[in-house]
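Write out this protein's structure.
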Amino acid sequence: MLIGVPKEIKAQENRVGLNPASVAECVHHGHKVLVQTGAGAGILAADDDYIAAGAEIAPDAASVFAKADMIVKVKEPQEAEWKQLRKGQVLFTYLHLAPDPKQARGLMESGVTAIAYETVTSARGGLPLLAPMSEIAGRMAPIMGAFFLQKHKGGLGKLISGVPGVEPANVVVLGGGVSGFNAARIAVGSGADVTILEKNGDRIRFLDEYFGASARVIAAGKAAIDAAVLAADMVIGAVLVPGAAAPRLVTRDMVSKMKKGAVMVDIAIDQGGCFETSKITTHQEPVYEVDGVLHYCVANMPGAYPQSSTQALNNATLPFVLSLAGKGWQRAVDEDPHLKMGLNVHDGKIMHPAVSEALKF
């Protein structure tokens, strides 16, 4: 199979679908790989590195989209990209279709078979292709929040760790899944006063056992969320419903009552966000203010650390890339029910039930 790797064009996105090591593995398995010139610049991988791995270099994205049997990306295709997709072609990337009906319709109209990283499952019930980016976004969240707590950045001027005799920042994490757990780990390690709200009983027990006295773990409910958010210096939204739009846990009214200069970091923004006041931002302009509260809602947080995130993503996606390329998408999903859960669009139709329910078409 001819695998195509275009350069990412989303704002400040420096990751790449396949790094040279992954290309070499694909070539080793008998596949051809066509990489757009400059696609690896964000991870300091030159065209010569890809050539040494066995790839061919394409002069532009149009050549990649026109020739490849399967397109491997990182972020959801932008309009200029989905217009180049075609029937019979496979797209393997993050899609996050639930809050993005325009992209969904574009993919449907193209006829492409689109398989989304974020809805591929595992035998243990996890999301193995979403997990590495959730880990990175989770670990980034307290770091970004702490940065914007600086007074001259618009924050309330509170050091996340505190100092002897001075209380640390009160950090509230909504959701104790992969991203929330990792956010809590970094916040605890930074010396913050951490509260995690989670609704799954088994997960609550795990979090309680893991963190012990270093973080409070509370069963999530409206009253508990309201109380925690209003007392918070930093709120990290880390809730996820696979394939569906994120639930809105913090209302505009709640934001208006929060501390002025508090910081909200919405890791769930890819799925529409879990704060009613959330809207997508970029690394270039990452924050905005609502009622005196700073909102950090960057939709591609791991793109800030492309060296780490590309390697972590490739570690997870490469086995599936090889399966799709070696067997063809139909046989690959027929033989792997977990990969089949990644099938979001095929032949002009939405195939994933949660995505279909969220989009209402």
